[in-house]
Write a structure and sequence with these properties.
The structure holds two protein chains of two kinds. By secondary structure, chain A is mainly alpha-helical. Chain A has three helices and no strands. The longest helix of chain A has 66 residues. In chain B, α4 crosses α8, α6 packs antiparallel against α9 and α7 crosses α9. The chains are: A mainly alpha, B mainly alpha.
Chain lengths: 125, 196
């Protein structure tokens, strides 16, 4: 018993096979096959032209992709540079505070409890 | 007495004999871009490719489309083909995929319309014609894969392993598909015999 006949009820029905063969029979006319051969080669030739067109397009696509990549890198580095400058300027603006602001903090505490006299010191006994 | 040869009468198809050594040379030449070599490969394999496609699709026109698409795909993929492989098996897989694509694109919506399309090429005596028309209708109702498996196995003589490879399914699935398709069609044929 081969693999082809193993399994339940896998017997070929000759009449069914005959009908199937008739339904799916390839054309018998030799001229048909000559014609099909010509049509296949024509289709392949047409496909080859399309392929060549796509090949050019693909080269263009690759160049475009490289250009886009370079643009992205340049734009990214510019953005990072601009951000570094902004950060440095913000930092410098914080540490270079104007001089007339300081006395206000000196005279008044930041909290009410820090005001002079808010905590009376006990007098001498 | 005149003998009328109908274009769709099943006859023994003249097959181009397999010549593996020669075929390898043809493949190498085709890979180098020699169009004549590819043309010879087409001539050699087009009939078998047609039978593979015809087993999957429901009519002759779709089978021819699948064959053309299959050869085009094969041409485009030829440089990736290793000449030590079996060219026929590789090509059949490509053609089967093209045929399955066509089947997917043309989902049958009107089940009544299709059998006429399928049977339109056959001009047999009334009883047989009716039987085949209804069998064609039943065949059209089968899932494409089961239809392909029963035709490729019973009519074309491919083995389960070859069918599995061709359709991209395990061998066991091909076997169970064949079992289901046979029992379904045999059941129908039994009913038809009592009707017709």
């Amino acid at each position: 018993m081969t693999d082809e006949t193993r399994g339940p009820a896998l017997h070929r029905d000759d009449e069914l096979t005959e009908h199937l063969r008739a339904l799916t029979a390839p054309p018998a006319d030799p001229a048909y096959w000559d014609g099909l051969h010509a049509r296949i080669l024509a289709r392949v030739a047409q496909g080859r032209e399309e392929g060549e067109w796509w090949a050019v397009s693909e080269r263009t696509y690759r160049v475009g992709l490289m250009a886009a990549g370079l643009t992205l890198i340049v734009a990214g580095s510019l953005w990072m540079r601009a951000r570094a400058i902004e950060t440095r300027m913000a930092y410098e603006s914080q540490i270079e505070t104007p001089a007339d602001v300081q006395p206000v903090f000196a005279r008044r505490g930041l909290f009410d409890d820090d005001r002079p006299g808010a905590h009376p010191t006990p007098g001498p006994r | 007495m005149t003998t009328m040869v109908l274009p769709w009468t099943p006859t023994t198809v003249r097959m181009v004999p397999d010549r593996p050594a020669d075929e390898r040379e043809l493949i190498l030449a085709a890979q180098r871009g020699e169009e004549a070599a590819f043309g010879t490969l087409v001539l050699r394999h087009q009939r078998r490719a047609y039978t593979v496609a015809r087993a999957i699709v429901l009519n002759h026109e779709d089978a021819e489309d699948a064959v053309q698409e299959g050869f085009l795909h094969a041409y485009r993929a030829l440089e990736r083909f290793r000449p030590d492989q079996a060219f026929g098996a590789w090509l059949h897989r490509i053609v089967a995929n093209a045929a399955l694509d066509i089947t997917r694109r043309r989902k049958v919506r009107d089940a009544d319309e299709l059998p006429e399309t399928v049977a339109s090429h056959f001009r047999d005596p009334a009883e047989t014609a009716e039987l085949r028309r209804r069998l064609a209708a039943a065949l059209a109702e089968l899932p494409a894969r089961q239809r392909a498996v029963i035709t490729l196995h019973d009519v074309e003589g491919f083995r389960h392993a070859e069918i599995g490879q061709m359709l991209g399914i395990p061998e066991g699935t091909a076997r169970s598909d064949l079992h289901y398709a046979r029992s379904h069609l045999r059941q129908l044929l039994g009913a038809l015999r009592s009707d017709v």
